[in-house]
Each structure stands twice: as structure tokens, then as C-alpha cells.
Specification:
Elements (H helix, E strand, L loop, with lengths): L23 H6 L8 E6 L3 E6 H18 L4
Antiparallel strand pairs: 1-2
Length: 74
Amino acid sequence: MEFPNDKYAWIVKIGEKGQFVIPKEAREMFDLKPGSSILVLGDAKRGLAILPKEQQSEYISRIFADLDKDGGEK
């Protein structure tokens, strides 16, 4: 399967403790190191999103702005 430039997908397995390993290529791309903070967002219809700390504020602001415009959930 091919993806557009700068778009990637990885498949990971969830372990017995509910943990998974972020693939090495993704960790390097987003400069994730042991102890890095990530934000995990969940939407029952749309799934999960994982954001590096540097992008958290931007995306949280956008999400809340969209919710304010729509008067609630999408």
C-alpha cells in the first residue's frame, strides 16, 4: 500500500498489559525518546490519535475551537 508524501502508517500489537511499542522509524521521525510525553486522544467513532508533546497545544486548541463552533461534539 502506498501513502502520499509525508504520510505513514504502522501496525503494532497490543501486549498483555495493554502496551505497545511505537515503531523505531516513528520514534526517530518525531524525536521520541524514553521519558518523552505524548498525548493520546480517543474518539469512539474516529479512533485514536497520538501526538508528540510539541504538537499538543496546537491540536488541543483546534479541537476545542471546532467543538465551540459546532456547539458540542462532532
